[in-house]
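Hey, can you fold this?
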Amino acid sequence: MNDHHGHDHSHGQEPTASECADFLEQIVYFLDNELDTADCAAVQVHLDTCNPCLEKYDLQRTVKSIVARSCSEAAPDDLRARVMMRVRQVQIEIRES
């Protein structure tokens, strides 16, 4: 690999793609407050220094808040009835196959 930065992970250097991938996997847990204090601190430091990951974090946070807001609304009764009828049809088809 012809990396002009070498493999030195000193401060001030851009995070590597694999480091970003590791942090992006943790973002979901970070958003749900499911990380321990040390991991939370590490993710926060990474987000403070890596703009592409921060943008992905902001997007995830926005989507999560929209979904949470949408899930608090009840579906109309006629839609619920149609969905339940279709679920029962699929269950019958699965049992018969």
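Oh, and this one too while you're at it.
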Amino acid sequence: MQLSKSEEELMNILWKQKKALLKDLLEAYPEPRPATTTIATLLKRMADKGFVAYTSQGRSREYYPLVKKKAYFSKQVNSLIKNFFNDSPGQFASFFTQATDLSKAELEDLKKLIDDAIKKK
């Protein structure tokens, strides 16, 4: 299951805050902030999808993520590689290094990360 762009934006706020009331989530948005009802609707959809849950605190709800950020984005990257790069991490890496304006130092850092990953295998 995937989050919409608006849901991802809200989920990023919740991942940072770990637990939050609706008013806290709303306050974390830059101006102009979305309507309270918009955030409530997004939270309901995200709960229905299994991304967030809440505990009741009187008349308020404290929301918390059920999915870890790393797990979600790992799945998204793998889906991107599968759907747009013929399930080839090599094609993705080639596109990434050519389509982005990486400096020599940034490319060296990537090379070191790859070399370190190879050593661990």
